[in-house]
Design goal:
- By secondary structure, the chain is an alpha+beta fold.
- It has two helices and eight strands, in the order ααββββββββ.
- Strands 1-2-3-4-5-6-7-8 form an eight-stranded antiparallel β-barrel.
- A hairpin with a 5-residue loop joins strand 3 and strand 4 (58-64).
- The longest helix has 17 residues, at 2-18.
């Protein structure tokens, strides 16, 4: 059991740093806010970006877990991805000024 414990300890210690990269890929997709209005999330050079319909693409800056600041770490708007049983994001929750809005993944 000692080798197993040793193998688990580094993995657990490195989970926040190393698990971020694989999870980013699982968040890429299109999320619908309303009919005809969506946000396309892309992964470019290890950085997530969100591009709402008719708006410029902005970087999503990792804050913690599956929560990102839109444009900057101290941005007034954040997005949190909900991860499904298959490990892929099923929706994103946008939060600004205490208000939340969900956008379901459509592709």
């Amino acid at each position: 059991t000692a080798p197993a414990a040793k193998a688990q300890a580094p993995a657990a210690a490195s989970t926040p740093a190393t698990s971020a990269a694989p999870k980013l890929d699982a968040m890429v997709g299109e999320y619908e806010m309303a009919p005809g209005r969506s946000i396309v999330v892309t992964l470019e050079k290890g950085q997530l970006h969100g591009e709402p319909t008719n708006n410029p693409k902005r970087p999503l800056v990792h804050l913690s877990g599956t929560t990102f600041g839109v444009g900057a770490a101290d941005a007034p708007m954040t997005v949190t991805f909900t991860i499904g049983a298959d490990g892929r994001a099923t929706e994103m929750i946008m939060k600004r000024d205490g208000q939340e809005r969900a956008a379901k993944r459509i592709r």
